[in-house]
Amino acid sequence: MSKCKYTSITMIVVILLSGAAAPRSLIAKEGCVPGQGVPPACTINIRDFGAVGDGVSDDTAAIQKAIDAAVKNQATVFVPEGVFASSTLKLHSHVGMMGNPSWSFRDFGGSIIRLKDEKANCLLDLTGTHGVTLNGLCLDGAKLGKEIHGVLLNKPKQDFEGSEEDTPRIERCRIAHFSGDGIRLSHIWCFTIRHCMIAYNKENGLTLRGCDGFILDNWFSANGKAGFSACESTAAMTLTANRIEGNQEEGIIIRGGSCYTINDNYFDFNGGPGLSILPRDNKPSNTFSIIGNLFQSNGARQTRFNTHHKFDRYFPNDTTPAHRDVFENSHARLEKVHGMVFSGNTLRKGYYKLDEKAPLYAIVYGGLKNSIIKDNVMNNGALEQLIVDLGNNEDNVVVKDNVGSVPASLKKASTGADREKKKD
User: Which of 130, 279, 376, 413 lies at a CB distance of 3.0 to 4.6 Å from 336, suitable for a disulfide?
Assistant: First the structure.
């Protein structure tokens, strides 16, 4: 058997095991072949529909034709290596888009779709679809326009009775340089985002309203506002093994959310709290498991993440808004949360010379009910005070066994005396 044939068979086996779609060159040339074990049934190459990929030619119509043609057989649209300039592309249910994910932390690479229309509202529109997969794409907003999002799903309302789960899957994609959010999902029901880099967007990395999401093993880096923003109704979210770093405001901000698992994430160098959980319209957030996370260098609103690392700054630091109040200069801000476990987390102050003023506080809390803040470690955890109790806590709040210190060169830490408030 020739080396070429052996390589092709090996690639198909890898694709089958990973569940990804194969490029058209690796499957039957005679069109779609249902039931042959290659999911989806066929793959359609956008170059066959006239896409050029030179970064100059307008490839919108060609790519959209490929997407439309994929509907019949629920196929995957393959985007080969190149830079494909495009306006908004409308996806359809049970159609995938797949590329070659050869991007790096700092650069696009492989299959790049670059926004060319400064009046578009998004690059990929998933509104009204079910079962769409985006895999291995680079989506480049090119810093065009105002409030243009990379991926948009914008349903008018949450409907659990008259509709089915949306179930988009966004995997191995680099989504950057959009003037709006990298991804915006409104009234979403059931989704996954995995192994992606969502960075350098002028607003949030991910803005979310909806429920039943899995957000796993991603970078949310250097976005103009938060890395992850859920300030409207959200529930049943799992965030695990994400690196949330260098965002101008919060790493994660949640208002009035419920049923969150936030475990084993890395919060680094965000301009506001690494994690901020607050009420929405005075209604509490509830039912949170926050375990095993690492917090470092958060809280300095004038973050210099990109300057320090010589990354391309989307917009200059002097546009960064000031803290709304001093307690945003913290690692974790937990206000009006009911039914929370915050345990086994590690928190330390910044070690960058450019970030000597953050954070002032490690953990800020208040208005809690039926909640535990316990067994956290704060070695050199903050500059002024490790734990701040804002008061207004209700029944069954336990804050104890949290150890740590401020730097020896600064004043002695106030560790927030162990506090137990239990209903008799």
Answer: 279
